[in-house]
Predict the structure.
Amino acid sequence: MTYSNENIATMNSIVARYPRKRSAIMPLLHFVQAIEGYVTSQGIEVIAKMLELETAEVTAVSTFYTQYKSEPVGEFHVGVCINTLCAVMGGDEIYKSVSEHLGIENDEVTKDGKVSLERIECNAACDFAPVVMVNWEFFDNQTPQSAKDLVDDIRSGNPPAPTRGPKTLRTWKQNSAVLAGISDGLAGEGVSAGEPSKLGLKLSKEGK
Amino acid sequence: MSKLKPVLSANWNDADSFTLEGYRRNGGYKASKIALDMDPDAVIQLVKDSGLRGRGGAGFPTGMKWGFIPQNDGKDHYLVVNADESEPGTCKDMPLLMANPHSLIEGIIIGSYAIRANYAFIYLRGEVVHVFRRVQQAIEDAYAAGLLGKNINGKGFDLELVLHAGAGAYICGEETALLDSLEGFRGQPRLRPPFPAIAGLYARPTVVNNVESIASVPAIIGNGVEWFQSMGTEKSKGFTLYSLSGHVKNPGQFEAPLGITLREILKMAGGMREGHTLKFWTPGGSSTPMFTQEHLDVPLDYEGVGAAGSMLGTKALQIFDETTCVVRAVLRWTEFYKHESCGKCTPCREGTWWLVQALKELEAGRGTSADLDKLLDIVDNIAGRSFCALADGAASPIVSSMKYFREEYQRHLDLGSCPFDPIASTLFSGTRA
């Protein structure tokens, strides 16, 4: 049984956060990804039963949102921002070189199951462009070479720390649990803010 | 004297700025104490008087929005914070929440008290796990300190606050799509009226506010209306976060009184990258019509930017230099809108698809100048014809780029290809590698 009694208890606690239980569908889908890595038919059935919905209703929600995956992704899911600003500043070249380096295209996974690749839209870190996300953690100011080094390090078992994030890079499943609201206790790790975020503050102190 | 005014960003240099202790050390949670001693209507009036306007794009007066909530109606009320920040170029709320999540929580306490809500939600985009951690920890710490939960500060006010992760849909930044998403449905905009103030979350009176708007409230309560009004311009009061990105020497966040100009910010930031000149820029994200060199002195407030033909939007100043092909930039934004169209309204779903087809041809230099008119014709048939503003946003970069750079589109057609080298616009092309 993929969903243990403990898993079900956690899922019930997620439902209990909301005034109406259907609102729990999104964190529950994140939780299914934390357990299984992607949204499986079994996961859909568990959620449907819990929320007293048809499986088609849960599937309709799951397929609307790009973060819910209908097929397995890598243990480390690499997103390269190809929205205009990042693309122009190097995102297109980064995506191309990582894709060629790994031999995989958009939405594909390496044979060892370690890395998957996705062309992502703006991730709200434009002052750190070009941006790469791994398991939705920030890797700022990338170049084609730094991004290739990043995926090499991941595949050799030494994933580097995010630029603004915890000291160690967590797996796709672990971070999916965080998005379901299951705390991993790592909020205190990492910088308060990156240097560009603090630039205005610094200049104001200099009287500029 | 500095032209900048760090308020929300004032403590971002502290290593523990995101903790309860770090926030309290700088005076945090004093304002909510003051507010909970006031009559809720007086809190609404104070925010109205301050002139605070929404920082998420539309610029609607925050206090007025609060005032629309019917009182003594016997219904549950909700405060929902829009932290779905996804408008291309926009990058202010995520650093704010990572470095200073308690400013938002304190604002939520005040706002919920004012509109008589006992349940509040933060709808945070899902693609930022560390931001989620910071906000969640801050909420847990606030509960433990008695700042959230039952009988806050012993004042008899109860408030539950839930952090909710989105899952990668830009459209959920549109307030009614956000509410559908939060109710557990596909995130698709609703027809209005009724507006959320009457029938929002679970068809109950609901206020939806942007992160920065709500986070600004404690400073207004704490320092007073006069202090807030001493900053900004006649109809755009106070301070705000401007996000500078792109081909500049030093990108970053600049908190300043409303009405500062791009020329002033660029000067502080060290200007354009070495050896390059400004070509075009957005004042507030990709959905706001682009500007050029001639707009460097436009006051960046709601009226100034509007009078110059664009919108202040999210104050996402994306800067592109002369190496950038405007057709490529616009195509990429258009692909974004096509990807993010929720599909509910036909003009948007089909129209953005056709716009991408047309722009791909134009960027490759295929077609005739009649195709340029066709592009504008398609835009005419999608803008203003849908439930929400996504299609209007898609129209903005196209219409504005055709206004300022029509000859560049024509040059693609004359050459039969794109005249630009994409490598020249990258950061690692040599100048700032």
In short: Residues 15 and 226 of chain B are 31 Å apart (CA to CA). Residues 390-415 of chain B form the longest helix (26 residues). Strands of chain B lie at 78-83, 119-124, 149-152, 157-165, 206-210, 239-246, 252-257, 278-282, 291-292, 316-321. The radius of gyration of chain B is 22 Å.
